[in-house]
Amino acid sequence: MKIGIIGAGSMGSALGKIWAMQGHHVEFSFTRDPNKLARIVEEIGLDTQVATPADAVRNSDVILIAVWPDALETALREAGSLSGKVVITCVSGLKPDMSGGTIGLPTDLTISMAEKIATLSPDAKVVEAFNTTFAEILAAPSRDFNGERPSVFYCGDDASAKVIVKGLVEECGYQAVDAGSLHSARALETLATAWVQFAVVAGLFPNLGLKALRW
Length: 215
Fold this sequence. Notes:
Layout: E1 2-6, H1 10-21, E2 25-29, H2 34-44, E3 48-50, H3 53-59, E4 62-65, H4 72-79, E5 86-89, H5 113-120, E6 125-128, H6 135-139, E7 151-156, H7 159-171, E8 175-178, H8 185-201
Parallel strand pairs: 1-2, 1-4, 2-3, 4-5, 5-6, 7-8
Antiparallel strand pairs: 6-7
């Protein structure tokens, strides 16, 4: 599979590395430090390359958007049309200092970051995933927690896209949990903010995994 990464920070680079190790072609793009992209590709090797956001979209079947919220509209503008693409977003309302926003379910007047992407790119197949885990866990040699796999929730409106994302989540070593339609992204992004803040306040960040137990 061909995967384009828009936002080659800690999340984007860690996920891209895992997917490249799974045999996918991965193109990295969009960072404040252009030299960083070359360093990432050199470090990972395998079937990876540096690209512009537009080229990463054009050349790929699946697009990961992993940018800070204030860079989202710029990233989408540079990416161009996402029509027909499976778009994974892990964008949450967190700031680099992990302060985030107000805890609580958004009101009907507020849409999630995932819904915002779907609104700006209406022909894309948007799926939210990976915002309930930490980049440090993704960068670790494995996602094994003493024999347990942490969970990653994902949600979206396109069934075929969700099947693809489920597979990519599982390739990263997680238990993939279907959280329903893209409307659930509002709750997932709130959960992500609460989860990160809890981990930081409790002194457990980043060595903490979220697990959904099934009865």
